[in-house]
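Task card 7
Instruction: Convert sequence to structure tokens.
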Amino acid sequence: MRLILIILMVIYSSCVLADEDVDNISPFTGWHWYNEPIPTKDVEPKQKKNTIPDLSKMTPVEQSKVLQQYTKEALAKAILYPSSENTTVFLKWQKFWTDHASYFSQSFAVAELDHPELDYNLVRSHYNGTSPIQQAQQKTEEDKAIQKLASQYGLFLFYRGSNPIDAQMAGVVAAFARSKNIPLIPVSVDGQVVPAVPETRPDDGQSEAMNIKYFPALMLVDPKAKTYRPLAYGFMTQDDLATRFMYVATGFKPNF
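Output:
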């Protein structure tokens, strides 16, 4: 019995030495004894107490970065080590940002009262009740722009009769030109004529001379000055065409 105890003590000592010296691993490890480490539950690591930086000495950008980092760490800690305490810390940070967002939102109202020139609602009301009035004003402005351009320009439409989208655009442009009394010359670049524009002419090199490579292409042409400018590429509705006329007439000035 004593001999057995001595043998066991020797074996135990060998295992301990094997753990302490990686260069002296027992050849029997993993063969006669199952000595893999026992898995343990995730334990929240002890963190060193961080000194809180003096935010008063930082710029607003620097302050924001520090506070955002605290918030991210609180969220990560609450997810990895869920507990009432950790989640409460994160919720406090969340409330901090929500409260400041509310203060920021309210400051807009104060700023707009102090500086009404910054209130966009004076220019473009965002209330649904004013929508019909604004649409009527928009249409009036578009009609003026179309009349102004139509007095000087005509329309050239270059399209591919074999392309369904080009063919649909040809019908839209034809209806638009008739309703606005704008001269229109349709040109087929592939020789196929769309029924909506029977007055179509064949492309005799005009598209190449005007360096038009994308279709359908709608061009504003000044016959007297022999100049042209693009109005639209691709498909557009009549409403979009009217808006585009206004943009071109005003030099694409922002609508405010």
